[in-house]
Records
---
Amino acid sequence: MIEIKGVHKSFGDLEVLKGIDLEVNRGEVVSIIGASGSGKSTLLYCINAIESINSGQIIVDGVDVHNKKTDINKLRQNLGMVFQQWNSFPHLTVLENAALAPQVVKGFSKEKAEAIATKELNHVGLGDKLHEYPTRMSGGQQQRLAIARALAMEPPYMLFDEVTSALDPELVGEVLDTLRLLRDDGMTMICVTHEIAFAKEVSDKVAFFHEGLIEEIGTPEQVLDNPQRERTQQFLSKVL
Amino acid sequence: MNLFTPLSWSDTGFILTGILNTVFISVVAIIVGTLLGVVIGFVRAESSKSVNIILGAFLDILRSVPLIIQLILFSTFIGAVGYPLDPFVAGSIILSLYTMAFMGEVFRSGFNSVPTSMIKASRSLGMSYWQTVRYVRIPIGMRAVFTSWLGVALSVIKDSALVSVIGYMELLRTAEQLISRTQQPVMILIGVGLFYFMISYPLSLYGKHVERKMAI
């Protein structure tokens, strides 16, 4: 379970998160929507400790993420993350990309790491590309590789930061299909997304962020079909 | 004067020694200079501005003062303070430091060429800072600057001729001795020039080949 309690985060004078409370249970899919600059991505970065927080607490399976005593590299093994930019390692093949972290972080043998990587790559539909270099692949394929690379660490949680935003429109579908697959597997996911229809389809909960606060949260039907707050209504009328 | 008087066969061993000494000191300087350069480049890419200013000034001196002056000053200085070094050792030290100064800049730009987002992605997989350096930043950064690295390495091979001024018997100094004996400067210097070309040109061709292979 991921518990986010009263999290504040500033960049210099700019307060990006102004007290976020959110709980994500095992098996849940939570989508975060909102305008650019509302703090959605920053929250994901804070969950993964890529960014520090100013106050509040983030607890993952009972471990305080921002406690100085927490072994952050160990904790991150439980929190797979996929970014807007896929960041494939250009010097490694598709298989090596996905097998690298299990090998060096978990200390698995090459064979074991590659077996896990192959399984995840098959899962995202890249089974026929194992020995290609990612720079020869499309953005959609590279993003699926990034998903498989994170999955190869076998994390119980996955964080997705606008994973379709940098893709050409015709490639968005294949990445969303991969996310649907993970939802069907029962993966716990937090998705920051601009794909409202997708959020409605896959989410258990939708949170609408506005200027560093959760303006409205609830089931997709509540937040997306019958928004109660004026700002949610305004946002949805612009994007739908 | 007869320009075409052939050198005697008995000079072969002498010439070969010169060639080997040139190759030897170049390889030492390239290896040591590259290793130190990776460290310098990494420190420069990671350090604060103040560290960079101090380190940058030191490297600027090494890069701006002509190599021949550094060689003579260093070898004279250590002789004067009572620790004379073998010309090979003294030459290797200065040539390696000189190489390091250039390699440091090459590798700094290599490290800086790895996007921050890629480093974040690596860390998000649970890789530690040093694991990210070892498995992501070094291999990607090195590839990005391979051509520049080769350029520096090739010029080091040619610059090694300057170590002759402190008495190291590399190819040029060997040639000078043969010239003073045979009085055949043109032919001997053409031969020496051809030798440098024969080392450098295939290496640069090979470099282009490797570069194409890495541009995946």
Note: The interface with chain B takes residues 48, 50, 73-74, 76-77, 79-81, 83, 85, 87, 89-91, 100-101, 104-106, 133, 135-136, 146, 149-150, 153 of chain A (CB under 8 Å).
---
Amino acid sequence: MNASPLGYLNAAGTRAHSILPLTWFMLLVSIVVCLVIGILLWLGIQRRKVRGAEDLVRVPLTHDGNGVQWIRVGLIVSAVPLSVALVWTMFVLAAVAGPPVHPALVLDVTARQWWWDVRYNGNGPANSFQTANEIHIPVGQPVLVRLHAADVIHSFWVPKLTGKTDVIPGQVNQSWFEADSPGRYLGQCSEYCGYQHAHMQFEVVADTPQDFAAWTAAQLKPAQGPTTEQQTRGLALVQFRCGLCHQIRGTDAGAVMGPDLTHLMSRRTLGAGTLANNAGNLAGWVEAPQELKPGSQMPNQYLSAAELQDALAYLETLK
Amino acid sequence: MKAADFRTPRVGIDSVEHQGKLYRHWERPEGVWGFLGSVDHKEIGIRYIVTAFVFLALGGLEALVMRMQLAGPNRTLLTPEQYDQLFSTHGMTMIFLYASPILSGFSNYLWPLLLGSRDMAFPRLNALSYWIYLASGLFLYAGFLTGNGPNDGWFNYVPYASKAFNPGLNEDFYALGMVFLGISVTVGAANFIVTAFRTRAPGMSIDRMPILIWGTLTASVANLVVIPAVSLAFFLLWMDRQFGTHFFDTAGGGQALLWQHLFWIFGHPWVYAIVLPAMGMVSDGLPVFCRRPLASYSLVALSTVATMILGFGVWVHHMFATGLPGLGLAFFSGASIAITIPSAVAVFAWLATIWLGRPVITTAFLFFASMIILFVIGGVSGFMTASVPVDWQLTDTYFVVAHLHYVLIGINVFPVAGAVYFWFPKMTGRMLDERLGRWNFWIMFAGFNIAFLPMHLTGLLGMPRRVYTYNDYPGWHALNLLTSVGSVIFALGILLLFINVAKSLKGKATAGANPWDAPTLEWSLPSPPPPYNFAVIPTVASRHPLWEGRLDESSKRSSLDRGLLLDQGKETIATSALDAGPDMILEMPQDSVAPLVLALGLSGLFVGLLLKSWTLTALGGVVLTVALFMWLWPRRDLREREAEAAHV
């Protein structure tokens, strides 16, 4: 069960780690309580049971004891794990509730129906960039995420790294996390937000410092220009059609309704976790997103086969 | 009700002639008008129960369709829109149209019988409460059937529910329907509260009330306090949607979180309101089959009230992830953990009752006893979500879905099924088949646990709630398939309950007055009871009027055969609030279609508001006003005119 990418009974980050022992404690207490009560119930029934409704009247009434002793003992025994859980909860809460004082990285994440816009704020516009649905972080360093809602309520959740923080219009909530080791950690919107709540995922990619620096440098670059004739035709088409909603830095496509496509091919998924990002899926996604992610904000494109090939030829250069 | 003239009621014993008089006063006319105008709590109670079970079946079918969609990953049986309306309608149906009304139904039917009274305090209000429930249920379902069902979950968070993101009629149906239904719950709650405090049989002091009365009374007080919050919230939402106000619109200075506070201030106490009466059923029913009184009656009664009081202070545990300050969260976390204590009192009292008694295994017993363990499972998962940092992981995953189904099915459906087996003989004079009953119980119990126990693990593996489909992550498919299979088995169990009822209704009425040898007043009456319930109003000397000779706890004895005759009209007795001393004669209102007409007027009004047809709204308002005149017109049968004349 550790294999489930959204499972939270194993952690890969400081913040998720500090919650785990308490989670296990409460889970085990819960299981033990169920077993004890279950056994008491079963024994109580088996001890002096009488079968059959017909005989009801013949079973004499009793009124031995009033059971206060049961309640007294029961409450005293219950009070122990309850108190432990309460105090422990307060300690864990105090430990994980506050954001890091000196985060290594501060990101602005905007949740939208149904994808995640991610902004890296460097020193000035030249050092800032935008991407979508994939958050790269340096491993072993605390990262602070400021959460903005563009439309309805969403919730930011990376089970292996951090619990949920709702993303609510009109307020900026914060989440923070720190990854123990390099890897990819799945995130999922966890507050119902409409048709495609199911397909509103993202990935947090913890990189080594070198990889992170390389990735940042690559993301900062604008898109490289077309090199073939087909790609040139594709760029024109993409600017004209996709540019209505999407941004490709270095081209005339400059809208911010949809995910930034400048380095589209560097990302692992399409449609916020709906599909793996490969050539076949990309073609399907460009042509008919409504079949793959019904209700998504992206309309079907109805491109001719030739147009689609041109567009793909260009899009595949966006590495 | 109305206090009559000063007159000392006669005391006497039952006789054929006396019963004839009572029948003339209490029996309702035959035919359609008699049916529509009936204010008899027993008829209203049964109508509530039948209607609520219809909604249970509908909500169950919705769940089965969803479980077909979720049986495997990436299935396409349902579109996202269909799925969203189904899960929202399922929640709305089960929580608002089944779980609460079914308990109102049993309480309506049982209360006067348990209390030794001839009807509820306000019989016409009672009828109104039912008609509005029916009308608002139809109103809400009219939305669903026209493709405009709620689509934002039963909790209906803004801004997704606001016009910008939800332009259809869906949320208008839901918002207005909930305000509409709120009227039914409010008048019903007021009726229960007055009934509990003023119409108990002489001698039934407050420490002799059955726990079911405590449960429904507590729930009713809670409803009176919290329903205004949710009605207001839905009204403000409707204003935002239709008239451009900005209560929840952040762009206009409103607050999206305001909705969540208003909703959960209502929502959490409501959860207790739909389980406390059911816990009362167990507290009253279980001891009968353990052949002894309930252990620690006083502590159970107090824990009922304590649960509710604490229940007012835990709503923020639905909002732990909303970014509220840590200090506030800590308080609500503590309160949510503390609320375990009164629940534990009830659990240990039930266990002690079984251990100190002689359990007789009947279907009703199995349902009541199994509820104890289901309650504990639902309770401990609630305990886990009460811890803020743990909840940050658990919330909005299937763990919470499992938790809430253990709470609502475990503490509502199972006791209700037990209550059907227990009280069906009283309602109809017919026993339910015990053999079929065993099948019924074990299939329900197995199906329920197969469906929902593994669902905790689905949640721990991270599956989020309210998703119309899911990826094939390790473990998810098998667990979801198991849940789908379990849900079908559970549904078959429920079907067996309906079959058992249908089968018994064809049989002969041979149950007799007291087939379970139970101790409370309703079992002293014929099954089914006559329209006037008690031929003479009993005088109560203990919690177990029918057992006191055998238990011999004190020398005092209740008087069931000899008591107030009250046969000079449609009368019953009002007693003082705490010690139930006789206070005054209540002249009860005659049958009337005024409540029905009022509900129809309200329906017109709400449909008018929905369609923004001010003509229809005004017309509804006129009908409503006419109904109020019909209702409040001074009536000779209440001696109102004589009283006036005397003054002159």
Note: The CA atoms of residues 519 and 547 of chain B lie 5 Å apart.
---
Amino acid sequence: MPGLIGPDRFREVAAGALELSGVDGVEVLFMHDWGGLTRFAKSEIHQSIFREDTGIRVRVVTGDRVGVAAANVATPEGALKAARSAKEMAEVVGPDAMWPGLAPVADVPEVPGRYDETTADSSPEARADAVATLIGMCPSGFTAAGAFETQAIEIGVANSRGQFCWAPSTQASLTTVISGGESGSGFAEVFGAGLGAIDPEAIGRRAADKAERSQRPRALEAGVYPVVLEPAATATLVAFLSYVGFAGRAYVEDRSCFSGKAGETVVGTNIDIWDDGGDPSTLGAPFDFEGVPKQRASLIEGGVFRDAVYDLRTAKQAGTTSTGHGLPSPNPEGPFPLNLFMATGDASLDDMVAATERGVLVTRFHYSNVVNPMESSITGMTRDGTFLIEGGEVVGPVRNFRFTQSIVEALSHVSMIGREAELASEFFFSASRVPALKVEAFNFSGVSDH
Amino acid sequence: MTTLILDSGQMELQIHESIGHPIELDRVLGMEEAYAGSSWLSPGDRGTVRYASDLVSITADATLPGGRGTFGYDDEGVPAQSTPIIVDGIFQNFLTSRETAHVVGQTSNATSRADGWSHLPLIRMTNISIEPRQGSLSEIIADTDDGIFMTTNSSWSIDDKRINFQFGCEAAWKIEHGKLTTMYKNPNYTGITPEFWGSCDAVAGREEWVVWGTPNCGKGQPGQVGRVGHGASPARFRNVQVGVR
């Protein structure tokens, strides 16, 4: 099993690039990751893989021109070779009038609990045992599909201004869809910094229960309904709001639904959303891919939009400082919040259902995408557990809905918020720590056949 | 509900999402169920299921010159080939790999590809193309009394079985008495895969046929990016719901 290369060796590797002469700045981004993934379908493991990769990206500055080169090496000689290549790139590209400079020296706080040796050393046998336990929770006539992934990552950034940071982290996730019977499926997942968060029996039981309760769904007419969104569904709204609203590049280019709205009430006053890479309950490194410490960024506070997140470039454009949300260069997308949180409330999921006269309980959404970014409207499908609520009780499954909904509008009609938050993922985004929500008006624009 | 005409570029996306993915046999067998989803098709559907109207024939051709999904051998060493997928509206063949083809009593039709050294080969689209029929886009528009013409994809969403889709375009024009009139921005339309394809009553000819590249097709865990192609002509569909809000 691989191990951490560590900060001392990374410093030696980076020094190879930092010694490049005749340039005005050098930055070395180092990424080393390894991990295994066990995929299963029809209650059989069909894919078990292990992968290790080591890479560096060297950014070289000559005047106001910037070049980037990448290599799969972790030696001083390899780093110097990549730096020379990046210098050649810098010499042939046009000037960058908005070049903000490399990150200044800044302390990066250590976050405890982000790296777990047991998770880093996880074996395929251990993952297979956990999958067997999960599959064992399937009722007769049902099968499980899903993935169990364990990953270890170390990231370092060093630059010629003297900034140096390095951090290891691990993460583990177990996701499943259990399906069968006459028709119907149920979903459950868990994310964490280590294997301690993974309880395959509980995940299997949760998904199996939903699958059994999803049998023979009936078609409900499309329309506007009150909805109770489980955390995985809330995560879709929060993740897409970060894409169309909180990302700094869209914000400074007036392409964000929040451009020009700092200080305005944009959603319900009961909504607080922030990004905090330093919070022990989230995942990843406490600094960004430019070596800037991740700051706690208040995005929506009491329903008021505060600000977007920034990297060095967009901060310069906005006349502010980086919030530590830069992505690896070259980066045409701009900064992005990767450690989102939504504030919890005081309700349980049962409370929300009990308070719903007629509505829909949504386990999760699928394949969502933006309809109109300036209106924060997105479309997508429900899947793996969509239920009708009547008279304060879940009365049965319904066929999956297509929704077309403004996120800002939805978050303006939240009447109840879950008292517990979960790390939940959305297809193309990182995991957010969010609660369940009750939204009083949610637009289901179509119905599927299952 | 109205008559919808799609330009060749939007047809590329329409083929990719509502035909290309559901014909992947690993999806049909449930191997992607927990993540990207499965398919509305079943292994026994070959030769029996009406996928589209008689005008629609779809071919998977990894030998197409200039296609983004063209290659010599797939990543299991199987020679590239051309496979009929839909013939005159009837579904005929899945995309298969050596691991999956035996389930439908066949050998691999060479669609198993990985995006790099560190990933397992998965069933990926090659060049999944609609066969051109006849006529030009302008002739199809001229032949349409009332409808809407949409062009250039901007957004896409489809369910886990590839049945219920909603796609957005950059621009549209109303069609009145065979002429383009009022322009709209950010149009969209929605449909159910076999109903939508079953309503196709015009496919433009070879002179309008373009091989488009899709360089960003995501699939698998860990995620892989596939490079695939789609030959497409403009086409017309009846009774389509447009302008979803």
Note: The two ends of chain B are 14 Å apart (CA to CA).
